[in-house]
Amino acid sequence: MNFKVPRGTQDILPSESWKWQQVESIIREVCDMYRYKEIRTPIFEQTEVFLRTVGDTTDIVTKEMYTFTDRGNRSMTLRPEGTAPVVRSFVENKMFGYPDQPVKLYYQGPMFRYERQQAGRYRQFVQFGVEAIGSADPAIDVEVISLAMEVYKRAGLKDIKLVLNSLGDIESRNAHKNALVAHFTPSIGEFCKDCQSRLEKNPLRILDCKVDHKNPLMATAPSLTDYLNEESKTYFDQVKSYLDDVGIGYELDPNLVRGLDYYNHTAFEIMSTSDGFGAITTLCGGGRYNGLAEELGGPAAPGIGFGMSIERLLLAMDAEGKSFKQESELDVYIVTLDTPAHRKGFKLLNEFRSAGIRADMDYMDRKMKAQMKSADRFNAKLVIVIGEDEVNGNVVQLKNMGDGSQEQVSDENIIETIKEQLK
Ligand code: ATP
Ligand code: MG
């Protein structure tokens, strides 16, 4: 029997996981800078949480959810995205009553979608996202966008662009919806089955179709921009001028509608423009969702957020040839030549670690040469050698791999000497 990782998932091996940790620390630093606090919600939710919010004509709900019935006969779903669970928690925990509004949250963790696997598209992927809930100030839209841009900037990415649209408010969307129905109805027979059902339920979704996106009627479809009412236009103009104020450039795309139903007003994506990047160029998607808290049984609480996957961030870094600096794995590697030396080495090893020195030693009873090679591979800054003489004399040989110097150090002074040399 040959076991394999499930299709669409991946093992993140030690040769890669250190990069994930680097991204995670960037995320923590940037969120801290913007005063966004971490929230951790369960990996599964009642299915209804996603049905009510994500929308029953979206790809996510129609074909991508991992839904199962638990032993109590309840329908549960592995979370396909982070916003609905966070807003569910916001409502359940009455965060709308917190003295400081908006409530600014971030999350990071695995999401699950039953997708066709391809580069940048997995069935389990890790999404980092933020949500600012409780304010309808256009400045907070720009704060959220700028937070995402800052994460990419700190990862070293240069070839990225912000693409922006406004979906307007309900009134604008309804006016646009009627225009879309009129536009597509005569030729709806040319479109896929999904689009045919979207025409009735949510014609805006047609513009996001991945099957029919080349149909000429897509390009000539009525643009939402032309249907924005005064209020929506003003809101959008304010977002744009705040972006100008903070020096974030953008491209307008009137067909940007995003995969989820709950967005209104601001919708945005951050895309990679790097030549090396594959077919999927969206790194991050987000937008405003003013009706979501009410949809989940709470009071009106306008929100804005985004989600980005770490997988695509790392792919974009590869495409741009950017990498994190890999630090030395070890401060000290202890080489021992016989059993008494091994005992002494093991005792020192534990003292070093308690003193905050990153240390390791051989557990395979190998020859000195093989142990030295390990020290090299671990990029150890210092190597300690212990043989019979060192055991008898209560000393060790300390070798500095940086400058090649070597000295004999007494057991009492070894920690102090190591710390001195590591400075
Ligand atoms: P797409 O059009 O690529 O399917 P989407 O509209 O489904 O995207 P969102 O639901 O907005 O995407 O997710 C936000 C972000 O999450 C994406 O920009 C991307 O970084 C990431 N993402 C979404 N689906 C996947 C996936 N299957 N694998 C890896 N990352 C993903
Ligand atoms: Mg998708």
Automatic annotation (TrEMBL):
Top-level EC class, please?
Answer: ligase
Main localization is cytoplasm
Determine if Ribosomal protein is one of this entry's keywords.
Answer: no
Arranged from A to Z, the UniProt key words for this protein are: Aminoacyl-tRNA synthetase, ATP-binding, Cytoplasm, Ligase, Nucleotide-binding, Protein biosynthesis
SUPFAM superfamilies given in the database record: Class II aaRS ABD-related, Class II aaRS and biotin synthetases
UniProt EC number: 6.1.1.21
Q: Which reaction does it catalyse?
A: tRNA(His) + L-histidine + ATP = L-histidyl-tRNA(His) + AMP + diphosphate + H(+)
CDD domains per UniProt: HisRS-like_core, HisRS_anticodon
- InterPro entries the UniProt entry points to: aa-tRNA-synth_II, aa-tRNA-synth_II/BPL/LPL, Anticodon-bd, Anticodon-bd_dom_sf, His-tRNA-ligase, HisRS-like_core, HisRS/HisZ, HisRS_anticodon
Against PROSITE patterns, the record matches this protein to: AA_TRNA_LIGASE_II (PS50862)
Do you know which NCBIfam families this protein is assigned to?
hisS
Assembly and partners are described as: Homodimer.
Record's protein name: Histidine--tRNA ligase
